[in-house]
Amino acid sequence: MSAPTRSRQEERSAATRQRLMEATIECLVERGWSGTTTTLVAERAGVSRGAQLHHYRTRSELVIAAVEHLAEVRVAEIRREAAGLPQQRTQAVLDMLARLYTGPLFVAALELWVAARTDEELRAALVPLEARFGREAHRLTVELLGADESKPGVREAVQATLDLMRGLGLASLLTDDSARRGRLLRQWAKILDQTLREA
Amino acid sequence: MSAPTRSRQEERSAATRQRLMEATIECLVERGWSGTTTTLVAERAGVSRGAQLHHYRTRSELVIAAVEHLAEVRVAEIRREAAGLPQQRTQAVLDMLARLYTGPLFVAALELWVAARTDEELRAALVPLEARFGREAHRLTVELLGADESKPGVREAVQATLDLMRGLGLASLLTDDSARRGRLLRQWAKILDQTLREA
């Protein structure tokens, strides 16, 4: 009779972690890093301080887990969505990436990036995540574009696409940049297609 | 005899403002927005609180003035530096822009961008500056590249170059990204040259 009990407890634990991670992203988006205290997150998630500390010992652990989790969810969503795309898909792929880099994941991650510049504990935790997420975003983009990285210039064009997305994410922080972004991405889709074909 | 007196006072005022602006950028780079208090800036600049308040009434006014001033200085430097460049200059121009977007100006501006997301007073002051700096950076890049924006796609290619620079700035916040950035910019120079020629 102990197995089902343990399983119910595991389910409760998973639900608690899920609520904490969602509350963390909401706090980061609404109040930024400085407003994202563990107390506020626990309150918003409806989780006791004890339960929170059981799952995440520090503020850094909590925010890193939240951003990592959301990144996994979003990347999986994009892979599913991309499965239905036609062969001529460059523009659609860029639009999907742009949604990712102008959404809550980018905003939350940006809050951490900037805070980590001047917070050593956060920085130590964030640098490996940034490297892992960078590799994952690159792999995803290669896959979605059907890019052949053995051809010269293709790897850099994929990287440039992701750096461009980060720049577009920044440009949409304070004002609505969607019209300009749309025109720019239509042009980049042409250039990127040419680069992928030519190479 | 009043003119030279006034002029000496003006000189002292200008020197005070200069020290305050330099101290503000140093604080933003070293401690971020949250660590950039008016008290700390006055201390670091060796300026009395009264003198500081005489020149900049609020923290927002101070940081906006500092970033605006540094942007003007850097843009003027780039224009001077670019005057000596050869006709085939795309790669050199990209390298100059990349230095701008991975240096103290970008870091200080980024601190303000991110803080302004969740600080209404700062946001109200920053949005017009962001628009003005965006236009100025665009104009500078068009000028340096000798780009003809009446041709289709050229305007978007210049914009993409600046969005890319912002992305590269972000990518170099926590780790040394210079080797990757160098390879990427060599490829971007080829793509950009082709776009400017073809159009």
From TrEMBL, chains A, B:
<dbReference type="InterPro" id="IPR009057">
    <property type="entry name" value="Homeodomain-like_sf"/>
</dbReference>
<feature type="DNA-binding region" description="H-T-H motif">
    <location>
        <begin position="37"/>
        <end position="56"/>
    </location>
</feature>
<dbReference type="GO" id="GO:0000976">
    <property type="term" value="F:transcription cis-regulatory region binding"/>
</dbReference>
<dbReference type="InterPro" id="IPR001647">
    <property type="entry name" value="HTH_TetR"/>
</dbReference>
<keyword id="KW-0238">DNA-binding</keyword>
<dbReference type="Pfam" id="PF00440">
    <property type="entry name" value="TetR_N"/>
</dbReference>
<protein>
    <submittedName>
        <fullName>Regulatory protein TetR</fullName>
    </submittedName>
</protein>
<feature type="domain" description="HTH tetR-type">
    <location>
        <begin position="14"/>
        <end position="74"/>
    </location>
</feature>
<dbReference type="GO" id="GO:0003700">
    <property type="term" value="F:DNA-binding transcription factor activity"/>
</dbReference>
<dbReference type="InterPro" id="IPR050109">
    <property type="entry name" value="HTH-type_TetR-like_transc_reg"/>
</dbReference>
